[in-house]
Structure formats: C-alpha cells, structure tokens
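To assess whether ligand presence alters the predicted conformation, the chain was also submitted together with adenosine-5'-diphosphate. Input:
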Amino acid sequence: MRSRPTEPVTKLEVQQIVKRFSPAQPAAVDGVSFDLADGEILALVGPSGCGKTTTLRLIAGLERPDRGLIRIAGRPVAGERVFVPPERRGVGMVFQDHALFPHLTAYENVAFGLRGRPAAEIRATASEMLGLVGLERLATRHPHALSGGERQRVALARALAPGPALVLMDEPFSSLDADMRLEVREQVRGILKEMGATVVFVTHDQEEALFMGDRLAVFNRGRLEQIGAPEALFHGAETRFVAEFMGDSDFLRGEVGAEGVRTALGAVAAPAGLLPGAAVEVALRADDVDFRPDPAGNAVIARRIFRGAFNVYRLRLDTGETVHAFKEHTEILPAGARVAVRISAEHPLAVFPLP
Ligand code: ADP
Ligand code: MG
C-alpha cells in the first residue's frame, strides 16, 4: 500500500467525474474533483439542479460516471474498467425521507443493516448505535410513533451501524420543521464527530452547509466552483457566484485606480493582478456597510426589513446601486430618510473583474 500510517488517510478521491443523462442536456456533473480526509465532513452546496445528488449517487454506486475515477479508502470503485456495486462500497446513506421500514421497530431498523453477522454482535452493535443517537428508550417503537427528528436519528444509526468507510447524506434535515432542524443538525454533527465518520453532506442551504461542513464545496451547473473552509468561502469568494450564493452579497461597480478600487462608497483595496482602469464589481454584505441619518448623505432608505433582534435596511445609493446594512432594533429609521453610507468592513472585500 502507498499510504503510510503517519500521513492523513484519504478516504474519498473523486477525479474529473462526468455524468450526462442525455446528449441533448448539459452534463449533470461536469468534471468534478475533490478529496476527503479521514474523519472530515464535506458539505456539497449549491442551488437546486446543480448536480449535488448526482455526485452523491455516483459515489454511492447508484449511477455510473461517463468519465473519471472514484476511490474509496484507496480502492477504485468507479472508473474506466471498474465498477463496484453499491452494497460492496462500504458506504452508509441517509436521505431526506429517512426511508425507515415502517413495520420494523427502531432497533430492528438499525439491526437490519447488520444482517448476516453473529446474533450477539448484531445485538451489541444495534444497541450501541441507538445509545449513541440517544434513542435507547425508544428502541421498541415503530417509525410512526417517533418524531421527525427521532426518525432521522434512527436513520443515521442504521447508516452508521455497519461501520461504513464513508457516510453520504442527501438533504437529511429538509423534512424537519425549522426549529427542529437546528436542534437535530447539532446533535447529528456531534454524533458524526464522535464517531470520527467521513461524510459527504448535501444541502441547498448555505447556512446549513456553513454549520455542518469542515469544508464546503460550492456547485454551480454541474461544476465545482470553489472548495474550502467555511470562513474562506464566506469571506474569500473567488467567483461572483460564490459571493452571491454564500450570503446575499450586493455588488458595487468599481474601477481600479492608483489608490485601489474606486466605488460609489469610496476606495477599497484592490487585489493583486488587476490592471489600472479595469472595470470590476465589489461584493458587499450587510455587515460590511454602516450608515447614519444625514440630510446631505449619499443614499435614501428604500425599505426596512424587520428580522427580530435587528433590522436590515435596503439603501438606494444616488448612483442607483443598492446595498443592505444592519441596525439594532432599538434604532428605527423610516423609509425615504436620507442617510450617509460608508463601508465599515475591516477585512478585504471580494473583487471580481467585469467581462
Ligand atoms: P441537485 O441535487 O443539485 O438538485 P441533481 O443532481 O438532482 O441536482 O440534478 C442535476 C441535473 O441532472 C438536473 O438538471 C436534473 O434534472 C438532471 N437529472 C438528475 N437525475 C436525472 C435522471 N435520472 N435522468 C435525467 N436527468 C437527471
Ligand atoms: Mg438533490
């Protein structure tokens, strides 16, 4: 074997995979590559139809790639001359709809994945897994008598019980209520980390991806736009798509000058490699912008959006551009009021060349 114990083990390698369902359609997955280290959670995130589920199904062996190579724990499972069927890939899967067997109890659902092993081992492992997800007391209940969150934890215990090399999760929380979702995802992340599971986690929700992922892979139209740590993706978007998708950015027109990028809100630092005179866009989020009432200001309040603990203000700059900014709920300003807007961010802002 090539891998030595002192090196971090690569659990999953995806190299240049392509999947096209019909010649008339663009490829659903179009040359995607990434690696997962042992014990890492990767969140695949992107809008509906961008190829997340297809990527997961290719890894699981539920689809065959047209091109590319997939290795799990060093072993090729899909490639030009190899195709290992799903049941022999050592992957555990958790989907949105739980897909528990309704006629089996929670315990029996978990034990199902262990069939074929010695009875004592099945008992010990199934009980241990139910304990891990905090459901020992509900072991004899059937799915209909469990809450959505409890069912999701049974599904997770069932996927983890056989000790898979890799866990694949496709929008596992999307059938839960919003408040339940926050609680369950925190529990599930804790369980996965305690197990040291290696996980590919699919979601269309950027906030959920930031919470779940050790790293995020942002997909757009079948391609991987950017992969990296949550903070790196949030603050260091390399494409306009990532800046927009990862957190409601506004874009200000700018031009590269000697003192940086000139915008309607003053100059901001220019990234290296842009020539003077280049037309660019600067990505701004609501926490990068500050404003105060000022009859001689450079913008008017277009709208106040109440968010409970704070308000988001939509500000129309005199240039016609729009930015958003936060204010505490204690300071309410009316639509139509003239304000002075400035950039308050202390970190470098993402800047994208315009074509
Ligand atoms: P996501 O999970 O990101 O929403 P999918 O991977 O499900 O996206 O789909 C990616 C694209 O591939 C979509 O355009 C979808 O319509 C298409 N697609 C997915 N599965 C099939 C299939 N079995 N047959 C034909 N087209 C498919
Ligand atoms: Mg999907």
